Amino acid sequence: MNLIAGRSETIQNLPSPLEGCKNAADWICRRRKEIIREYEEIMFGKVPPRPESVRFEITREKKSVFDGLGLRREVTIHLENNGCFHEADALWYLPEQPSANIPVIVGLNFHGNATVTNETDLPLDSMDITHGQEADRWQIPMLLKAGFSVITAPRNSFFPDHENGRPNSIFALYHPESELTQEHREYTAISAWAFAYSLLLELALTEDRVDPRRIWAHGHSRLGKTALWAGANDLRFAGIVSNDSGCCGASLFREKHPDAETIAKFAFHWWVRDKLDSYASCVDALPLDQHFLTALTAPRPLLIASASEDVWADAFNEFRCARATSAVYKLFGADGIGDAHFPPVNEPLYGDRLGYYQRQGPHGVTKEDWEFVLEFIRRNS
Predict the structure, then answer these.
(1) Quick check: 111 and 132 in contact, CB under 8 A?
(2) Residue 66 DSSP label
(3) Which residue in the list 221, 242, 245, 306 is annotated as catalytic?
(4) Directed axis angle between helix 222-233 and helix 32-39, to 10°?
(5) What is the pTM of this model?
(6) Does the annotation mark 251 as catalytic?
(7) Are 47 and 191 in contact (CB under 8 A)?
């Protein structure tokens, strides 16, 4: 399918994130804060604050996994706030070799920790999943061999991914059950999951061998949206990788492909605030577009990833978002991807702190994706 379909690489009358902003200091001190407030009010709500107590308990450790490539830790995260408690289980892999300054990939998973690895001695979260069913998406042996640590946890542990998920989400640490109904859409799944990303970053920081300057947030699809929002709110992340994030992620709302997801087609209303619904029939009235969100990563490195057959996420609009984001990177003396043209499949644009590629194939994460990611991180570390 033709993703370009006659569309220009530049959208006319696209709002600028640089409104009234002329230099990097103004962006840092004023403009990015204004944009975060806009996203809180229109789209994602506020990321919950750190609770009164956060405790990480290593419940099991296993050495020499994957033929000696790594060390595996199973960790229970204990949270307490105002007499309320919440727990979640994380899975943590570290390279076996005793090196220092280890970089880390942090990301939530979709169906449970046991699904991200082909190891069969991890507990299954439900009868509906199997060991390793998403192992190809994670490529943990490949990442360990490259010297990376990997930390993941299930998204449903922080906000069950359905419209009645709020009472069992981390928002219950801060609000009574009466405020956690379907009507209270200011408490969004995206912000709950972004909160989880920061927790996993804190877990990484408990290991002396980890390099605190090289902890990256990675997310795919709805979690690609989340990784962007997590990185916008938590400046401790060294960089962000957003894979196939589409609508409300790294894909512009304006001038969408006719078969792409739009606000009007957006079915997962617990991910976002109800105010966004009011723009379904008048997208041009939005005071922002998604290059505002991606620009919140600047000046840190950002890689926007697409798939050539992912019409729903609209790979061409993800590219146009990356291109429009370059204007903010220029405030910091970086060119981004400049005026680059939409690249052929499997030919990444490794720009100046900003990158984009479209991988051959459908919506997903593959070994090829991770090869592109590792190369981008290598160039920006």
Answers:
(1) no
(2) T
(3) 221
(4) 140
(5) 0.98
(6) no
(7) yes
Indicate if the alpha-carbon torsion angle 1, 372, 71, 197 is positive or negative.
Answer: negative
Query: 175, 269, 363, 381: which one is catalytic?
Result: 363
Tens-place pLDDT, residues 332-364: 999 999 999 999 999 999 999 999 999 999 999
Query: Is a pLDDT exceeding 80 seen at residue 84?
Result: yes
Q: In angstroms, rounded to a whole number, what is the distance separating the alpha carbons of residues 45 and 38?
A: 9
Q: Which pLDDT value is given to residue 349? A: 98
Question: CB of 257 within 8 A of CB of 283?
Answer: no
Q: Would you state the structure tokens that stand for residue 26, as one six-digit string?
A: 């103004």
Taking 80 as the threshold, does the pLDDT of residue 6 lie above it? Answer: no
| 226 burial level (CB within 10 Å; 0-12, 13-18, 19+) | buried
Residues 6+ apart with CB under 8 A from 37: none
Residue 98 pLDDT class (50, 70, 90 cuts): confident
The overall average pLDDT reported for the chain is 97
Helix axes 222-233, 189-204, angle to 10 degrees: 60
Helix intervals (H) in 93-211:
135-138, 140-145, 189-204
- Contacts of residue 353, defined as CB under 8 A and 6 or more positions apart, other chains included, come to 298, 299, 300, 301, 302, 329, 332, 334, 336, 380
Short-list 344, 306, 346, CA closest to 322: 306
The residues, any chain, with a CB within 8 Å of residue 29's CB and separated by 6 or more, are none
Whether 126 is catalytic is no
Burial annotation 174-187 (CB, 10 A radius, 16+ → b, else e)? ebeeeebeeeebbb
Tell me the one-letter amino acid at 375: E
Pairing of strands 302-307, 239-243: parallel
* Cα diameter, the chain: 58
SS (H, E, C) 257-319: CCCCCCCCCCCCHHHCCHHHHHHCCCHHHCCCCHHHHHHCCCCCCEEEEEECCCCCCCHHHHH
Task: Say if residue 3's pLDDT is above 80.
Answer: no
| Short-list 221, 176, 184, 218, CA closest to 201 | 218
Q: What is the pLDDT of residues 297-314, one digit of tens each?
A: 999 999 999 999 999 999
Closest CA to 173 of 302, 82, 250, 273: 82
